[in-house]
């Protein structure tokens, strides 16, 4: 499946920047890649494999997504059986044996696959890529690596790597300059390494930290490591200098690379931009259209099932997203309580930013990113502070809406207002923004109520556009709606006679809202018509910055009598 975006080139630059650092400033040439599920971590490294020989060890956890190889069981088991991390000498010897055998086995493959001096660097990278893309070859390769690691117990990682590198150089017609990191090791689902095994309980170290220590011993070698993990327990993955157990890692001269989070988002819309005067009131509510927004997993999943019965494809994909968002099997068996799962579901539509003053805020945010599709925006240089949030993704909002409107035993699975009040009472909401949060909840509830009253809805029910009149009828009391529908413009002196005499209901007869969730604006840009039409298509309403002039939030309106959706 075609890869979109430029995240792989940004990652390559980050690797090369780390590679050229003086040895005394480099603790270990390892770039941690961390982000929410479905954002293309593995695929980004997969694409990097086309441009640099990449020795894969995707073995340290389960690989669920079909487009990517299965886990390397032999390697995973090898690390599981490592001596306890409290036994520094034996544990590090175990890791050295693996790395030494890995490079030695790769060198043997080079000798068999590549004649002397016949390949360009790019061609060589492709050979490595094809080798590890073939699952039987891949499994056989790692079985040999593990077998030799156990058998020989070789400890000379530097020598094994240099022999591999020299073997490659002799066969390469354009080996990269020293400013380029020529060889990478990819460790996927690396959280298994920094999770204490029973044998490690009581130790300050994890297998991941011991591996970094071994990599420090060979930091002068021309290879780098990328470690991939769904963001969780950032301090364990990338501990700050103050908390790093290694004295060398705490050295003031050392540069510890920040986690890499710049992964693909909205890439399918960027590759195939929205076109004015094309989308309709029904097309915006299809899976094919909505899946293009947000993380690449959704549209890739749609494309992989394209050709199947449409309703079945919708059901399968939405079922997966509901379970990923809630972190639980679907359907639910009990009413929702205020916990990480319900916060994730509500935040997907209402933007529940956790107050940093709340005791459990950081713990909740890490769990939300790890198991509930929340995005990790950045990690502070102190490696302690993280910034996360719910990005505007229509399919996640649709899954949230389906969960929020699911009935069991005659009542809703989620009592929105009880949960929100508990969220506020526990001090989890930002002080000073509670009124705005309640406003968002009222507007989303009104949209849901209006949609639930429609006879005909879109394929994705809660992506259905709603007439402005129906929305306000759902939002207001009967008396307030009666007053509004019969009202006439307050600025009628500036209008034509015909427009000035129109009631609200007549003026907005063919007008539609289309929003299932909120997104946060950095400035007033979304207010402009050339952007607002795209926001309408996305099914998003906008939360303005706190204390912004004139308004707290904005929802574009589309007039259907003027043709298909466009910015004029």
How much strand?
5-15%
Q: What is the SS-derived class?
A: alpha/beta
Tell me the helix content: 40-55%
Main β sheet profile:
4 strands, parallel
Distance between the termini: 36 Å
- Which stretches are poorly predicted, pLDDT < 50 over at least 5 residues? 57-70
Shape: elongated
Walkthrough of the structure:
This protein has helices spanning 7-19, 41-48, 73-80, 88-113, 121-133, 135-152, 157-170, 207-217, 234-237, 267-271, 287-290, 296-305, 310-326, 340-350, 361-371, 394-404, 416-425, 434-452, 468-475, 478-485, 497-500, 504-507, 529-538; strands spanning 30-35, 54-57, 183-187, 223-230, 375-379, 386-389, 407-408, 411-412, 466-467, 511-513, 517-520, 540-543, 553-554, 558-559. Helix 4 crosses helix 6 and helix 18 crosses helix 19 (468-475). The protein is elongated, with a radius of gyration of 27 Å. Mean pLDDT is 88; it is low at 57-70. It has 568 residues and is α/β, with parallel strands linked by helices. Strands 1-4-3-2 form a 4-stranded parallel β-sheet. It has a 3-stranded antiparallel β-sheet with strand order 9-10-14.
Salient structural properties:
568 residues; 14 strands; three-stranded antiparallel sheet; alpha/beta; single chain; four-stranded parallel sheet; 23 helices
In short:
43% of the residues lie in helices and 9% in strands. The chain contains 23 helices and 14 strands. A hairpin with a 2-residue loop joins β7 and β8 (411-412).
Secondary structure elements and pairings:
Layout: H1 7-19, E1 30-35, H2 41-48, E2 54-57, H3 73-80, H4 88-113, H5 121-133, H6 135-152, H7 157-170, E3 183-187, H8 207-217, E4 223-230, H9 234-237, H10 267-271, H11 287-290, H12 296-305, H13 310-326, H14 340-350, H15 361-371, E5 375-379, E6 386-389, H16 394-404, E7 407-408, E8 411-412, H17 416-425, H18 434-452, E9 466-467, H19 468-475, H20 478-485, H21 497-500, H22 504-507, E10 511-513, E11 517-520, H23 529-538, E12 540-543, E13 553-554, E14 558-559
Parallel strand pairs: 1-4, 2-3, 3-4, 11-12
Antiparallel strand pairs: 5-6, 7-8, 9-10, 10-14, 12-13
Helix pairs in contact: 1-2, 3-6, 4-6, 4-7, 4-8, 13-16, 14-16, 18-19
């Amino acid at each position: 499946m075609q890869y979109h975006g430029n995240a792989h080139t940004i990652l390559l630059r980050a690797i090369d920047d780390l590679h050229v650092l003086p040895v005394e400033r480099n603790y270990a040439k390892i770039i941690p890649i961390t982000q929410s599920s479905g954002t293309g971590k593995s695929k980004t490294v997969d694409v990097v494999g086309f441009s640099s020989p990449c020795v894969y060890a995707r073995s340290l956890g389960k690989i669920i997504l079909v487009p990517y190889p299965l886990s390397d069981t032999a390697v995973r088991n090898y690390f599981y059986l490592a001596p306890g991390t409290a036994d520094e000498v034996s544990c590090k010897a175990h890791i050295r044996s693996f790395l030494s055998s890995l490079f030695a086995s790769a060198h043997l493959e080079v000798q068999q696959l590549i004649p002397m001096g016949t390949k360009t660097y790019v061609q060589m990278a492709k050979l490595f890529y094809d080798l590890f893309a073939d699952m039987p070859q891949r499994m056989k390769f790692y079985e040999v690596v593990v077998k030799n690691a156990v058998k020989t117990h070789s400890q000379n990682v530097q020598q094994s790597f240099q022999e591999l590198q020299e073997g490659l150089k002799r066969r390469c017609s354009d080996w990269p300059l020293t400013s380029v990191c020529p060889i990478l090791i990819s460790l996927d689902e690396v959280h298994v390494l920094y999770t204490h095994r029973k044998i490690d309980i009581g130790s300050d170290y994890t297998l991941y930290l011991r591996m970094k220590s071994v990599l420090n011993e060979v930091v002068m070698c021309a290879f780098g490591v990328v470690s991939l993990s769904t963001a969780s327990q950032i301090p364990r993955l990338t501990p700050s200098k103050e908390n790093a157990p290694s004295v060398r890692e705490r050295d003031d001269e050392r540069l510890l690379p920040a986690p890499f989070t710049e992964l693909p988002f909205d890439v399918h819309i960027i590759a195939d931009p929205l076109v004015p005067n094309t989308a309709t009131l029904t097309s915006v509510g299809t899976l094919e259209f909505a899946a293009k927004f947000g993380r690449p997993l959704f549209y890739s999943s749609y494309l992989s099932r394209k050709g199947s019965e449409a309703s079945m494809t919708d059901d399968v994909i939405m079922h997966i997203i509901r379970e990923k968002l809630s972190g639980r099997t679907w359907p639910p068996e009990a009413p929702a309580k205020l916990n990480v799962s319900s916060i994730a579901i509500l935040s997907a539509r209402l933007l529940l930013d956790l107050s940093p003053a709340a005791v459990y805020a950081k713990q909740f945010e890490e769990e939300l990113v790890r198991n509930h599709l929340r995005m990790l925006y950045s990690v502070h240089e102190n490696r302690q502070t993280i910034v996360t949030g719910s990005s505007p993704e229509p399919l996640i909002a649709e899954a949230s809406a389906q969960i929020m409107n699911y009935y069991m035993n005659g009542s809703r699975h989620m009592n929105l207002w009880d949960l929100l009040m508990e969220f506020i009472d526990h001090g989890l909401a930002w002080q000073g923004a509670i009124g705005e949060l309640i406003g968002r909840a009222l507007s989303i509830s009104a949209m849901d109520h209006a949609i639930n009253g429609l006879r005909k809805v879109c394929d994705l029910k809660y992506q259905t556009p709603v007439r402005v009149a129906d929305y306000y009828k759902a939002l207001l009391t009967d008396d307030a709606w009666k007053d509004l529908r019969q009202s006439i413009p307050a600025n009628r002196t500036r209008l034509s006679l015909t427009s000035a005499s129109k009631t609200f209901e007549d003026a907005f007869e063919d007008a539609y809202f289309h929003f299932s969730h909120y997104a946060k604006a950095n400035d007033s840009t979304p207010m402009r018509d050339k952007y607002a039409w795209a926001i309408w298509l996305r099914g998003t309403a906008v939360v303005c910055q706190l204390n912004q002039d004139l308004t707290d939030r904005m929802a574009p309106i589309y007039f259907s009598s003027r043709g298909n959706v466009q910015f004029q």
